[in-house]
Structure formats: C-alpha cells, structure tokens
Amino acid sequence: MGDPQIRNRYLPGARGRVPIREYLPATPDPVAPPLLWLHGGAFVSGGLDQLESHAVALRVAETGRRVHTVDYALIPRFRAWGPPKYQPSDNRYPAPLDDVLTAVSDLMSEESRIVLGGASAGACLAASAALRLRDSSGPAPAGLILAYATLHAELPRLPHPVRDRLRGRRRIGTFTPQVIRRMNLNYAGSEELLRDPDVFPGGGKLTGLPPVLLLDAAYDSLSASSTTFAGELAEAGIETEHLVVPDTRHGFLNRPRSAGFRDGTTALVRWLDQLT
C-alpha cells in the first residue's frame, strides 16, 4: 500500500500547545474509523518517537487507517522504593487527560466515528477519555483498545490465571502492588483523586462504553488489572475481547522486532477490521 505520510501538528490545549502526529495512509480505507493511539510510560516518560507510539501507529496506518498520536503532559519521575517523595508539578491529573481530550476533539471534528486506544498508562488515559465521551452529549467512540493497561487505583489481587502464568522466575521483574500504587498516586496527585473513577476507571460505572479489546502480556502482573476490568466490563454488558499474547512481558508493543509485537498488532488490526 505504500508508506504512510507523517505530519506533526500542534493543537491549542488548556495549558499550552499539545503536539500530535498524524499518520496518513497512502491508500486510505474510506470506511475505517481513525485511531487515536496513546503511548505508555508510567505517566512520566514517552512521546511521539517512542516505538510504542510510532511503530504501532505505522503498523495500523499501513492497513489504510488514519492514526493520530499525542504527546500528552508528563509528570516528574517518582521513587519506586524508599520513602515516598513526589516532586511538585502542574502536569498531574487532569493535565494529561485534558491533552488527550484536546486531541480527541480535534480528530472528532473531522471524523465522528473514531477508535481510542493506548498501552499501559496510555490505556488508562484512553479509557478515561472514552468515559468522558460517554458522559458528554457528543458522539461516542466506535471502539476502545487497552494494551497491558493500568486501570485500577490499586493493583488488584492476582486472579488465578495470572498467578499461574507468573510462577517461579516469570515473576521476576514484574510490578509490585507498592510500585503501581506509587505510580498511580504520582499521576493522581492526592489520595482523594486516586479513588476517583474519572482518574482510574476500574471499579467505576462502565455501562455505555463501546466494544473493548484488552491485550495482555503473558508474564505481567498488570494483567491483574486487565483481567479484573474484563470482568467488570462483562458485568456492565460491554462487548469485550480479552487476549493474552503468549511469551510476552509488559511493553511488548515497544519492541517492534519481537514476535509479541507482531502477534499483538496483528490481533489489534484484526479486531479493528471487525468494527468496519
């Protein structure tokens, strides 16, 4: 189909300019809804050039779909161990979500039917944005893609399937509940906001969401959040597909030469095909 055209733009946001990147297919599919894709990075790192952003967007755009990525506001890094210490920042919630919603509004001004998606922290922002759209008077997204997502204020207890996959050495290097809590509190900025379902949607009201694809890494403790969220979506009556990509760890979409990236993006594109 040829290489997509790539264009960088800036949008006027609530706190300044919001950089976005557009991926315009060489041969566009006229009926495929565009994808707004958000990178991960624990709310503290990443950007438009991050492979989890750029490589995924290229892969999707090669199928004829328009893709937008967003360089949303980032927060100072946090201490994973030792006494908790958080640096002052104006970029905590709702700043990253506001930037995402600015990009959503821009894309929906041209296309009323879009798909939201993201990985890890970006998946949390995508889910929050979808809930904001649900609660607005405007059009809802056509679908929601959440890859190895952090969706709960606290990492849920590992469900049996996740626990079985993380036995022995496979548990080494995975996230602990303490690290996830520090990461999420660093984003929320307060204990009160940490429990707000507008910040972390897990455990909140999920009715009215569009169809959801949950992509998980096989050896990732964050699967506890996706697996729990899948159950919550089912209880809310939301059409949900939950796939565990074999032999992968957290962040496999950041490794475009890996089998996990190939398998994960193939599943993602296949799911998108079902929406059109």
Automatic annotation (TrEMBL):
Q: Which SUPFAM superfamilies match?
A: alpha/beta-Hydrolases
* Keyword Hydrolase among record annotations: yes
InterPro entries noted in UniProt: AB_hydrolase_3, AB_hydrolase_fold, GDXG_lipolytic_enzyme
The superkingdom of the source organism is Bacteria
List GO molecular-function terms, semicolon-separated: hydrolase activity
Would I find Manganese among this entry's keywords?
no
Keywords linked to the UniProt accession: Hydrolase
Q: Indicate the segments forming the Alpha/beta hydrolase fold-3 domain, all copies.
A: 35-253
Which PANTHER family does UniProt cross-reference here? AB HYDROLASE SUPERFAMILY PROTEIN C4A8.06C
- Name this polypeptide is given: Esterase
Q: Which organism is it from?
A: Nocardia jinanensis
